[in-house]
Inverse folding.
């Protein structure tokens, strides 16, 4: 199997059944996995921050860094590649972790999740399954052949999303 | 021999990184230092000169003209990058080894330390009593050195430590470490720093990066700076294995650091950008 790694602020689309698409150590970042069951294709995006308004120049260079520009870019890429669009796509979310913060001051994970949901809603999409929040850093692996989305975290093994 | 005695023995056995790296750190901590001082230290160390020139001529930094002198290389790279190269080249046993007790593969410690260094440098700019950004960077870089010693003593109990944190039986992973082996990576890091002859500011930042309120008045702002820098690195996804995110934020940082949510987001982005540049340069 060929492994495609998606870095922070990056995205990938694929319909190669010999590929596994991975993104590592999400922390407060969120991985958005979009599955197209008809074409057996997927898109995976690793966003770090909720809104591109904090650095519009950076958003132009690397739209995947932000939830608002990233989701738009990923879906456009999938559309260009001929994958189906609209409500038949299956969306799964992982990540958005936080540190133990009694005052929620640094709760960037929660803000990321909220921004991702809002952007997905704009496209009339919602996640069918999520593994979000908490204080664990997750990695995501999508197997194109099986369509399975597997999560892992140090000391906690693997589990399916 | 008890666990604590064995840990002390391991601290004694750890090789001291090249002195030039620490000399550079010491020089740049002084806000009034000159570029010449850094250049001279690099020039006096043949292997560091080679490394610095190699990075300055790497694809990330190459600007059409080969860099042939250390002076030019330091200008191109910036002092922080030079420190990064020096530490990386001289203390790989501390930064590049896997931390099995934390289930952290080779390279994670280096990445987390570098990200925490960049984040602490940026946080320092928001401190009320002006912690020098260079000192923030250095402290961030070294804050977790204790893990390189403690890791082997946690092997076998990693799972129970993780569970203790998740079930909220302990305050944080540091307390779980203390319950398991009688000490923690912050304390061990401070002892290692003592052995390396590091200045008091660095020793304090290392010792109290998870409990900054316990630092003395002179260094408390620095301890909070590294506390936040470390958390930012972890939130960005870069930890050192099982303990990533298993720590509590001390919200009294507000007494020493004035930062809002947007500024915090800007720092997260900056850490990612700077880290990518440094990583690319070191791997080219």
């Amino acid at each position: 199997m060929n492994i495609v790694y998606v870095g922070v602020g990056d995205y990938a689309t694929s319909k190669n059944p010999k590929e596994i698409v991975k993104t590592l150590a999400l922390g407060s970042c969120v991985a958005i996995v979009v599955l197209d069951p008809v074409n057996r294709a997927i898109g995976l995006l690793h966003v770090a921050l909720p809104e591109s308004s904090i650095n519009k120049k950076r958003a132009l260079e690397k739209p995947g860094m932000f939830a608002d520009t990233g989701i738009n870019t990923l879906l456009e890429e999938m559309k260009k590649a001929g994958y189906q669009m609209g409500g038949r796509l299956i969306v799964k979310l992982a990540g958005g972790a936080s540190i133990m913060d009694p005052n929620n001051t640094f709760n960037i994970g929660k803000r990321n999740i909220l921004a991702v949901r809002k952007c997905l809603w704009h496209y009339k999409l919602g996640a069918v399954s999520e593994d979000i929040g908490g204080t664990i850093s997750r990695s995501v692996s999508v197997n194109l052949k099986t369509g399975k989305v597997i999560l892992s975290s140090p000391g906690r093994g693997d589990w399916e999303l | 021999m008890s666990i604590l005695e064995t840990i002390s023995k391991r601290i004694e056995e750890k090789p001291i990184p090249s002195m030039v790296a620490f000399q550079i750190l010491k020089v740049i901590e002084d806000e009034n230092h000159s570029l010449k001082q850094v250049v001279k230290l690099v020039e006096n160390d043949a292997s560091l000169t080679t490394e610095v020139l190699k990075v300055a001529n790497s694809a990330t930094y190459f600007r059409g003209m080969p860099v042939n002198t250390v002076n030019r290389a330091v200008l191109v790279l910036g002092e922080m990058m030079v420190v990064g190269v020096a530490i990386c080249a001289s203390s790989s046993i501390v930064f590049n080894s896997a931390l099995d007790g934390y289930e952290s593969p080779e390279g994670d410690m280096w990445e987390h330390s570098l990200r925490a260094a960049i984040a602490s440098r940026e946080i320092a700019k928001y401190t009320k009593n002006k912690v020098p950004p260079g000192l923030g960077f250095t402290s961030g870089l070294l804050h977790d050195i204790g893990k390189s010693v403690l890791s082997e003593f946690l092997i076998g109990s990693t799972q129970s430590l993780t569970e203790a944190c998740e079930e909220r039986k302990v305050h944080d992973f540091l307390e779980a470490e203390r319950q398991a082996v009688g000490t923690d990576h912050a304390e061990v890091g401070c002892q290692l720093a003592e052995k390396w002859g590091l200045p008091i500011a660095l020793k304090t930042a290392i010792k109290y990066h998870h409990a900054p309120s316990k630092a003395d008045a002179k260094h408390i702002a620095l301890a909070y700076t590294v506390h936040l820098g470390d958390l930012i690195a972890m939130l960005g996804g870069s930890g050192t294995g099982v303990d990533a995110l298993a720590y509590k934020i001390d919200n009294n940082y507000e007494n020493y650091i004035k930062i809002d949510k947007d500024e915090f987001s800007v720092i997260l982005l900056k850490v990612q950008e700077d880290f990518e540049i440094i990583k690319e340069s070191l791997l080219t």
Observations:
- The interface with chain A takes residues 102-104, 158-159, 162, 165-166, 172, 231, 234-239, 241-242, 244-249, 251, 261-262, 264-266, 268-269, 272-273 of chain B (CB under 8 Å).
- The CA atoms of residues 55 and 281 of chain B lie 6 Å apart.
- Chain B is about 65% helix and 0% strand.
- The radius of gyration of chain B is 18 Å.
